[in-house]
Input
Amino acid sequence: MTTKTQSPETVQRSALVIDTHADTPQRFVDENFDLGDPLGNGNFNLETARKGNMGAVFFSIWVEPVANKGQYSRRTLILIDAVKQQAAKHSDRVMFVATPAGIELAHSERKLAVLMGIEGGHSIENSLALLRQYYALGVRYMTLTWSNSTDWADSSGDITDTTIPHTKEGLSEFGKDVVYEMNRLGMMVDISHVSDRTFFRTLVITRAPVIASHSAARALCDSPRNMTDDMLRAVANSGGPNSKGGVVQVNFYSAFISQAYRDAQKAQKPEVDKAVQALKDKYKAEGKEAPPAEVSKLQRQWADKIPRPPLSALVDHIDHIAKVAGVDHVGLGSDFDGVDGQLPEGIDSPADLPKITAALMQRGYSAEDCRKILGGNLLRVFREVEQIARELQAENRPRITDKQPYDKPQK
Ligand SMILES: [Zn+2]
Output
């Protein structure tokens, strides 16, 4: 069988498709959403995952940092539990796993492999003990920060905010210990969302290749949360001289992939702010606080007025990263259920993933390259992270636990 004769459908069916970022756990907990339900106003369910031949998904364990202040670990555990409950409930179609071998086993049984990544280092509450226990519960990557900086790592989301304290070098001493401990445990280090300085500091010290679980290219769309070409190359070269390098999983969010969409969003912002304020004032007049669901509904209505970018905008990012970093260093991190439906035209759920494969093949990507992008690259990195962990665990060096036995707060 030559690769040339394969149709996009055949390629999609023969690939082990992995999405490293879906925010569906919020829906499990806050909306009582079940993976067997119809999509509703979301992007992810079992039916569409099967239609798109999705083999594995990393559900994002994301703790909103303001509303959950003082109870980050509690919310983290509730989200982790929700993922496990869903996997148990749908054990005929879903398998909760935490290893590359587990992903392949689930795939061989035609089940969706479900994994977890923590989005935002604030979940560990400055404690390596919590980090280790999240690993024990099955968490296999952690995004060092979400849009909020922690005591030990800086975020692209608030790096220009001078009222927020930031580290001097991108990572504090404790932050370096976090990265080392993740390497030692075998938890993938995810650099999506972090500030540029935190990114480069992490790349200098990590012993394992890193991932960007859901990031796009800044050369094509100027978001501080997207990655410059230098950063793309650095991820490809991450993990030391013997490493095969990390992977950048492309985010599908319209405002990260399309400059036109981003500009329109910016132009619209004063009006949106005004409308949101009016809604808040209306509630205030009644002595109440505007319900967050209503605020986000209003924001979504405004966002829906901006035309969706074409699918080609998303494919441009995959193509750009493949050209700059190499085809071995790009994959998919949709951000489904995390972006209020603001996705490119024709992409509404995992059922639409074959369209991306078809578009890549149209641009000359071989079947083999497509299979790498669809999941092969991530699987390679995940395996290497496991291998590095075994090596580090065998190393006779002072254990971090000796230095930081329990919950000692570190800045
Ligand atoms: Zn995110």
Residues 119, 193, 214, 338 surround zinc ion (CB under 6 Å). The mean pLDDT is 94. Strands lie at 17-22, 54-62, 94-96, 112-119, 139-143, 188-190, 211-212, 247-250, 330-332.
